Amino acid sequence: MPAVLTKPWVRVSVAILLFVATTATWPRWWCGREGNRWFDGSPALATALAREVAATVQRGVSAAEFTSDSDLFRHEWQFGTYQMAALGLLQVCQEHPELRSELLPAVERAIEKLLSVEVRSFDARSWREDPLDSLDGPNGHAAYLGYLNLVLSVHRRAVPASRFAALNDRITVALVRRIRNSPAGILETYPGEAYPVDNAAALASLLLQAGKTEAQRACAASMLERYRTKWCDPRCGLIYQSVGVRDGQPIDRARASGSALAAYFLSFGEREVSRQLFDAVRTQLAGSIFGFGFVDEYPAGSARGRGDIDSGPLIFGMSPSGTGFSIAGSRVFGDRELFVSLTRTANLIGTPVSRGDRRLFVTGGPLGNAIMLAMLTAQPTPP
User: Fold this and answer.
1) Partners of residue 232 on adjacent β-strands
2) Which of 88, 164, 249, 346 is most exposed, with minimal Cβ within 10 Å?
3) Chain-centre distance of CA 82, in angstroms?
């Protein structure tokens, strides 16, 4: 051995160099090998993950499967699993029509579960009234009705003779009336709580139905204007996480988790405001380490907040939710480089494996797999 290699500082330096070189190459390649295929709409990848999500929907998901001290959050995640599963499966059906006959039954099963008394009970308990039985009433129910109605509107686009069409119309009329009667033009998620991201799902459902009546068109247009102005922080272009019920003034700061998810929801019905939100996330918050993409929860220069149920646990300011939800925007708006870097991170953390004809993320669980299907198959903007 050359004498120089026996010196401790040389050996330590070589070890560090080898570690950095290996970390920067092999994991980057391994975790990124599927990113370009997902971006290009690989039928094999989409089919395998869709089959796993469809099988989960068909067997059913219990709130007891989720680990949280909060009964509300466990039931929200049960609801979210069916909602994201339906959107993801519908996107796969749109991009790969040959899978419609296989996947649409699971979509309709997910909708049936969303409509069940068990799944909608989390919202009913918070409002002390059932969200569907009280459609003629004044209360917002954005946590349930907004997300549900988006699924119904997207399903109706895929299946014009949808057996859920009448309910879709009833919810749409109720949402329009409640938004127009709201002092701040926003639906309450729970009593006294209003979140622009939840209203983005409701707005997207209205935009998909906006050709029906003048009232729906006017309501959707006024809400879009609020996303451009009142609910958007002019310093960074992100939407506020929560606003006042009566005045619409910001309560929580502009953040990645809400902005990235809102960009995805709005992309179903329009692309201008959706693109503005995604561009703000991309330019203000996105970065990478050794090719592994991430999205910070808070803009640079602002005080770092703590992680919460919306963002997930922050790692040096990096947002698990903001990172995952931004995968959708990067595909919708054609940013291949960001998409691939974010999927590297998702693969590193989620550990995707194949089991027979299915594909799943080992650490994702039912909700994680449903979200990843929705994000990875978000539909690109037509050229």
Assistant:
1) 239
2) 249
3) 13
